[in-house]
Amino acid sequence: MKLVLFLIIIVVHQVIGFDVIREAFELIDENVNPCDNFYRHACPLYKSGIFMLNSAYEDLMYSIEAKFVDAEWNNLDVEKTFKRTLYKELPSIDEFIANVYLSLCQDIDATHSQKEAFLLWVQNTKLDHGGEPCIFDKCLKPLAHDKNCTRAAANLRNKMDFETFDIFQKKWRNNFDYAKTNLYGVNAILEADVRGGIVRIRNLVQKYVDKLSDWIKETPWAINNKADNMILDVVNQLYVHDNLGISLRKNLDYVFTIEQNYLKCLRDTKQSTELEIFCMLMACSGHYPEREDIDFFNPFNAFNDHPHLHFSYILLDMAEKIKNDAAFLGSVGYIAGHEVSHTLIEDANNLQLLPYFSNETVQCIQGQYQKTCDSYKEISCGAVDNQIDENGSDMLGMRLAYSVFNDEYDGSYEEDKIQLPDRTVNLQQLFFYSTAFVSCSGLKGNQDVRDTHSPWHIRVNAMMQIPEFRQAFQCDAESEMVKSFGEECVIVGKNAPQTRK
Ligand SMILES: *[C@@H]1O[C@H](CO)[C@@H](O)[C@H](O)[C@H]1NC(C)=O
Ligand SMILES: *[C@@H]1O[C@H](CO)[C@@H](O)[C@H](O)[C@H]1NC(C)=O
Ligand SMILES: *[C@@H]1O[C@H](CO)[C@@H](O)[C@H](O)[C@H]1NC(C)=O
């Protein structure tokens, strides 16, 4: 019953711009003590859908998609042909192209130049090396003169070596979807005007970078290994990607270049269902600049592509609309902290950006996640190969967010409380709840072996690393959450490990 209520509230509030964190308090299970299992207290099993934020934003996402049904980039002829082709009924690509050429060759209405054009499309997409004139047997134009069409088609067939339709289909479903996902995302951001959200995140990231800079200057393992200045430099390169014009242009260029090639191929050859498939294959197999690798729309996404930090539409929307700073810092702030931290956290055995990273710190972080996993395993956790990136970024990200929260409120947590039916939530608690809410899943936590992140309930319950959690919920020493705490891992700062003097 409550779930239904929850969704109705959200639908209503979307119209006026809703604060998803406030709404999420509907989910809490008061029968689970926050000190026993904070995540399942905030995000009960089977109550919040697969992922609470996705369902909360579902209607908004549909309405954005609906807005762009008629957009040209969403109605590409090449994609229509791609979608309606019955691949299962076709032989291999090489065979298919040879057969189409055979029909064209035998068609008494087809002109010589149409046959030449057909062969040139194959030559340029498949046999050509970077626009240089063709050489030796890779020049296909003379084939158009062969009046023995079976021989010409067989000859052509032997020169090609296309991938299988299966591989082609998978690759291009993905490519079209990805480009359109980006276009939805950029357009959604531009339409909805979340500039306020962008500025809010950008300012926060600057605070994180300043904090990290201060901490690194005092970090014994960095100083002792003469790595501090280089780490400082790397951290100071970070910035929030907010030039949406560039993202828009790159993705539009990508899809429209393919579309133009498709239409040009059809003009050059002849209109028929088979030639449409042929031209779709040619247009897609051409040499294109990579589409921009961003993923703005996928409902809820942020990533570090050092030095750029990317935030998806939902996160920007949250940054725009969550009123309370404690709620903002616990949710979007935690995710932004995680992304910023990706620049700094490295596997000591496989350094990429940094000259040195503390192995002791790595052991401490992994130790905590192992301990949290031992206490809170639902289906599985800890299955991914021992690599540090995600666990460490969570831990440092949380600490950055909490540290900014602390600067801002400085112990005055009682103003602007949230009233629940039988208690009030103060701002310090609100911070922690917000972290759980951005990750609410009603399904049992399972380690996806392809995913390097720990499952969400582990990520959130590892918040015990913030010593103030215990204070916020007044957890006693015997509670599960306190018992799942290993030792405090100070990653950077004056209390971080020494690692040789
Ligand atoms: C066309 O060429 C094939 C060999 O590639 C040959 O078997 C066939 O007899 C030729 N047809 C004619 C009409 O010459
Ligand atoms: C880090 O610690 C692990 C485990 O103790 C060890 O196998 C590895 O060699 C260490 N790496 C470095 C760079 O010291
Ligand atoms: C996170 O911690 C768990 C538990 O120790 C570990 O098994 C897993 O490999 C770690 N994952 C990453 C990405 O570091």
TrEMBL record:
| Record flagged with keyword Signal | yes
Which molecular function GO terms apply here? Answer: metalloendopeptidase activity
- What protein name applies here? Peptidase M13 C-terminal domain-containing protein
Q: Which UniProt keywords apply?
A: Signal
Where is the Peptidase M13 C-terminal domain positioned along the sequence? 325-484
Question: Which BP terms in the Gene Ontology apply to this protein?
Answer: protein processing
Pfam families according to UniProt: Peptidase_M13
Q: Which GO cellular component does the record give, naming just one?
A: plasma membrane
Signal peptide region: 1-17
